[in-house]
Specification:
Layout (H helix, E strand, L loop, with lengths): L4 E3 L2 E3 L6 E5 L8 H14 L3 E6 L2 H4 L20 H8 L6 H11 L2 E6 L2 H9 L5 E3 L7 H8 L5 E4 L5 H13 L5 E6 L14 H9 L2 E6 L5 H8 L4 E5 L17 H18 L19 E4 L14 E4 L10 H4 L21
Parallel strand pairs: 3-4, 3-10, 4-5, 6-7, 7-8, 8-9, 9-10
Antiparallel strand pairs: 1-2, 11-12
Length: 349
């Protein structure tokens, strides 16, 4: 499989800057103008794309009050699933205005579909890519349906074991997906930093021959920035206009300036990787003269022997290299040498 993918002409892979996806999710708080503003914010802060989620309460769950459907603990304690998704959904009739707005703002918008009707809607809007959420990574019929669009796919692997990931990848590939990203993900909201296990990113990419990345639910930007050094080519992070406004996902979402920092610092982290090598770098050239070398530390007369008292290894670096110091000791000066003279072979008998 190709370890470079393309979304809206943007190449994504280890040889390209990290692709930062700003996940709006439910942080529009039920207000389409806030959704428009979030798209504009993501563009202004430097994100490569903004993503939303395409479901209704009825397409993601059923309206049932059985204990199975109750949420106990965490950010959404006390909700049943239907009520939570009713609160958090992005209405289907918003999708076209949001896609139109993103195109005018010149930022890539795509979505996570949660059933086949959402895929059909997104196809009608010519979505450039698809994301499979970690909770749906085991929904092989949905993965099959998305893969048949032949668009790039991004699959989050949170909670999935290696067998489940293998089944998801195989299903995607067998049904026409040729451009695939696997995102390492810890499906906890927020996720604890110490359980991030970022070394999994490169392992996923190597095992499955895909572009690797991170869906990051930890607080702050540290984990995302660190992930770049460990092979993350795609970074997905929830965003909000303001955590103070609250919302379904606001507690673990980045505010605008934090997103700007994430975009700039992941790019700098990628730039810093370079390649293994030991040649002198251009930025070091002006520093070479300040390395140590051998200098005359006391006036020396012609014929006088070089000693530890009249020669020293000091900065700067215009004299003979320090490795020649033992060789010089005991030899005689060919000419008179003043204090502060950089030693050269022509001064030695």
């Amino acid at each position: 499989m190709n370890k470079v993918i393309t979304i809206n002409k943007r190449k994504i892979g280890l040889d390209y800057p990290p692709y930062v996806i700003a996940e709006m999710s439910a942080n529009h708080n039920g207000d389409i103008q806030r959704a428009f503003d979030t798209i504009d914010m993501a563009k202004a802060m430097g994100a490569g794309a903004i993503k939303m989620q395409s479901y209704t309460a009825d397409t993601i769950t059923i309206d049932c009050d059985n204990e199975d459907f109750q949420i106990h603990g965490g950010l959404w304690d006390g909700y049943n699933l239907y009520k939570l998704y009713e609160w958090a959904q992005t209405p289907f009739d918003w999708h076209k205005p949001l896609f139109d707005h993103a195109r005018k703002a010149d930022i890539t918008l795509f979505s996570t579909p949660f059933d086949e009707t959402a895929v059909d809607l997104l196809e009608d809007l010519n979505a450039p890519a698809y994301k499979i959420a970690s909770f749906e990574a085991v929904d092989l019929p949905l993965i099959k349906y998305v893969a048949q669009t032949k668009k790039p796919m991004i699959i989050s692997t949170g909670m999935a074991n290696i067998e489940e990931i293998s089944e998801a990848v195989e299903t995607a590939r067998e049904n026409g997906c040729e451009q695939l990203v696997l995102l390492h993900c810890i499906s906890s909201y927020p996720a604890p930093v110490e359980q991030s296990n970022l070394r999994t990113i490169a392992d996923l990419a190597d095992k499955f021959g895909v572009v690797g990345g991170l869906s990051d639910h930890t607080l702050g930007t540290t984990v995302s920035i660190a992930s770049v050094a460990l092979g993350a080519s795609v970074i997905e992070k929830h965003v909000t206009l303001s955590r103070a406004d609250k919302g379904p996902d606001s507690e673990f979402s980045l505010e605008p300036e934090e997103l700007k920092l994430l975009c700039s610092e992941t790019h700098d982290a990628w730039l810093s990787l370079g390649a293994a090598g030991y040649e002198r770098k251009a930025a070091e050239e002006s520093s070479v003269k300040f390395r140590r070398s051998i200098y005359v530390a006391k006036d020396i007369k012609a014929g006088e022997k070089f000693t530890a008292e009249n020669l020293r290894r000091v900065r700067p670096g215009f004299g003979l290299a320090p490795k020649h110091y033992p060789e010089l000791l005991g030899k005689e000066a060919k000419v008179d040498l003043e204090f502060g003279t950089a030693m050269k072979w022509q001064y030695v008998k």
